[in-house]
Amino acid sequence: xxxxxxxxxxxIFVGEADQYRQAPLHHEIVVRAKAAGLAGVSVFRGxxxxxxxxxxxxxxxxxxxxxxxxxxVIVDAAEKIDAFLPQLDELIGEGLVIIDDVDVITYxxxxxxxxxxxxxxxxx
Length: 124
Hints:
The protein is an alpha+beta fold. 27% of the residues lie in helices and 33% in strands.
């Protein structure tokens, strides 16, 4: 999907241990974003952080490595992001959601096959 120009970014801050119906919450958000036809989604794992509880979550010997902070980032047209927001009301019991307007630049020119060759260093 080609996306350029004014868009909206949805950043959802959750914990790695957060669940939705016995499944990882971040995965459920990804699945629903795909089903909603959003342009793309990425999940980023933090190495340290704290939220509303003020309890520090960190990677390390004395920390719980299974409850690190995660950020789910979705970028698409404003109307598509806005239409997706009601799903978060159902999914998120505790977390932080940030919505900001962004300018998107999509670089095109390589075929998907060429991009795979470039990324992996060989063709599959």
